[in-house]
Amino acid sequence: MSYMDTITNWAGNLEYSTTALHSAASPEGIREWVRAQTGFKVLGTRHCFNDIADSHDGFLSVAGMDGVVALDRPGRTVMVEAGIRYGELAVWLNDRGFALHNLASLPHISVAGGCATATHGSGIRNGNLSSVVLGMEFVTPEGETIRLTREHDGDLFRGALVHLGGIGVITKLTLAVEPSYTMRQYVFGELPIAALEHHFDEIMSAGYSVSLFTGWRDRNIDSVWVKVRSEDNADFAGRSSFFGAQAATVDVHPIRGISAEHCTPQLGVAGPWNERLPHFRMGFTPSSGDELQSEYFVPCQHSFAAVMAVEALRERVAPHLLISELRCVAADDAWMSPCSEGQVTAIHFTWKPDWKAVKQLLPLIEQALDPFRARPHWGKLFTMPHSRLAELYPKMGDFQRLLRHYDPGGRLRNAYLDRVVFGN
Predict the structure, then answer these.
(1) Does the fold of domain 182-386 match that of domain 68-179?
(2) If the chain, 424 residues long, is cut into consecutive pieces of 10 residues, what is the mean pLDDT of each piece?
(3) For residues 25 and 189, what is the distance between their CA atoms, to the nearest angstrom?
(4) How many Cβ atoms from other residues are within 10 Å of residue 311's Cβ?
(5) Which CATH number describes the domain made up of 68-179?
(6) 205 three-class SS
(7) What is the rounded CA–CA span in Å between residue 121 and residue 129?
(8) What would the pLDDT profile of 139-167 be if each residue is shown by its tens digit?
(9) CA–CA distances in Å: residue 103 to residues 132, 280, 321, 366
(10) Backbone φ, ψ for residue 76 (5° rounding)
(11) For the chain, which residues make up each domain, given as ranges?
(12) Would you give the DSSP letter of residue 121?
């Protein structure tokens, strides 16, 4: 066990409640260590903005378990260790002629952490990162090794997939892969927000992955990022406008005034999937670096109404905001996924680092989006109470029983799980 002066999350807005950190190098080491603990949490790449991974007792890191275990070429699957990051896995796969279906904006996050929180990329037909998990292995707090697969374990697998850190220490994941592909990225600026009323589906399905960025400063979407697979032959080359938005002539950053040097290449320059799906390059500070984040998912049929509900708050929101991003995510079947009841539109907020102001704004946004059954991103900042979350997630009671089954002693329980899942 090592100790540091402080441990904070990536954004620096959260200082964890203990500095006791143990690193594990093997499942055997994990089993031995967890059996001796009265309480602990697994600490990953620390990209969550809330206390989902916090502990008063001690942390376990599996960052050193970051290898690829096996690539099944005929079966199109890859088995990886839990500590590997998406950016590293993507390069490894692409070098061997394979690809993932999607990547999040930031390639810096770990595979295990991204799947545990239903983190996602963009694409009206693309599921979140957990949707391609076919198998998982984890060590329970009691030291038992559990293996679950989508094919054989059905509901149990769907319950454990988006587990919020409550079932044990993930050691391996098996993911579906596909042949590698190339992509092109196009950016258009100043889309009239009114265009979303009658053309939302057209806009969001214009590419393999589409993101809308806005600061809610006026009645325009600042920029539209359209990522197309080269084989789709999408007609964007030389296109000067897109639903009233104008084609960018230089690479841009989603946030006005920030250099685009850390962003992935644009202007229709072809490149491998792993260098176009994320907005930010691996190896650089993503986004602005000094920020807070929140995100809410609404059923796609309510997309424009939900956008206008936020737009009505723009005078309150804009002064505290760096940027918002609107994306669509396909439906999946994980119990605790925000996309479990159908295709959703994600409304993301990257805030200036002023928690006092943001904490006052979040209830207003949640109230405005409540008629549309908005669900929060589990790893970002929200104030929605357990009572409302239990209404939004019909499987909440089953999920509570699942966590108690794998962690009967409550060794993985923390303030987040007590507050958000168990309602204590």
Answers:
(1) no
(2) 78 92 95 97 94 97 96 98 95 98 87 96 96 98 98 97 98 98 96 96 96 94 95 80 96 90 93 93 64 97 98 97 97 98 97 96 98 98 98 98 98 98 95
(3) 47
(4) 16
(5) 3.30.465.10
(6) coil
(7) 7
(8) 999 999 999 999 999 999 999 999 999 99
(9) 11, 11, 24, 27
(10) 55, 55
(11) 68-179, 182-386
(12) -
Write down the residue that tokens 């799947």 correspond to: 115
Q: How far apart are CA 31 and CA 141, in angstroms?
A: 8
Sign of the C-alpha dihedral computed for residues 78, 116, 170 and 154 taken in this order: negative
Determine phi and psi for 64, rounding to 5 degrees. Answer: -75, -15
- Pairwise CA distance, residues 300 & 298, whole Å: 6
User: CA 254, CA 203: separation in Å to the nearest integer?
Assistant: 18
**DSSP state, residue 264:** P
User: Token match 């994990």: residue?
Assistant: 30
Tokens of 93: 């796969």
Q: Give the architecture (CATH level 2) of 182-386.
A: 2-Layer Sandwich (3.30)
How far apart, in whole angstroms, are the C-alpha atoms of residue 87 and residue 123? 19
* pTM score: 0.95
User: Residue 290 corresponds to which tokens in the numbers above?
Assistant: 């000094």
336 and 289 Cβ atoms separated by less than 8 Å: no
DSSP β-ladder status, 20-23 and 59-61: parallel
| Confidence (pLDDT) at 287 | 53
CA dihedral of residues 418, 21, 105, 135 (deg, nearest 10): -70
